[in-house]
Amino acid sequence: MNTKVTIAGVTLNNPVMTASGTFGSGMEYGEFVDLNRLGAVVTKGVANVPWPGNPTPRVAEVYGGMLNAIGLQNPGVDVLIERDLPFLKQYDTKVVVNICGKTVEDYLEVVERLGDEAVDMLEINVSCPNVKEGAIAFGQQTDALYDITSQIKKKAKQPVIMKLSPNVTDIAEMAKAAEAAGADALSMINTITGMKIDVYRRKFVLANKTGGLSGPAIKPVAVRMVYQAAQAVKIPIIGMGGIATAEDAIEFLLAGATAVAVGAMNFVNPYATVEVIEGIEAYMRQTGTEDVRELIGAVERE
Fold first, then answer.
1. Which candidate in 88, 128, 164, 255 is catalytic?
2. Could you report the per-residue pLDDT of 216-234, keeping only the tens digit for each?
């Protein structure tokens, strides 16, 4: 039984990875999860300089998930290189570094710093507000997405995964723009913008007013978007958004994803990733599936 999948020439032992921002850089979860079991560890977003993030409160529970407005707080790329990458090198898992920035130059600086490091792929978070465009996210306009993708591809030594925002009118158009600019793969979806109000205090629950909705509530939207993008592009897709069980993960594979990432569920159940991997293996045995790649895009279209 083969569980290996390949994305942009990088072979993962299985199709399950962590979603950025929900697993730190693996150190926090090392005592719960054997990182060798994961297809890949995706780090929390890293910028060229430390980011303080947003004011608190910045996390709220909602029906079927959570809202977060962390603001991509991170210690910066220097700490990642000195502390996190040496830790991850100990394990037989692929390392994907998620990159954030406020300008194209910010992203390029991190991409160049990581050029000679032990990093297998780069995941570019284009849901960051583009300060030069009045805080419209890079991933919300096809031309801005095309521009940042093509500039990163010129500098990157590792394969480039563009992490798409779902807060757009037509996800297939965004996917095509990233592919046309040279992206090696897509990650989708990032969080959906949401809001919660405390009816007794009559105030916003999050200091930022809005936050990113993640968790099981967004899964049907994520599956639909992955399917639409898979119909529009030929590059591999890493599907994510509300995956809690193996069945959830298999839905994404059938919709056209080559791999999947487990996110919010890590906060609820630190063993979630390994349980999803074991569940996929059990499903393959139960259905007589010899190779996990047989599942990719295998949903009946009629």
1. 128
2. 999 999 999 999 999 999 9
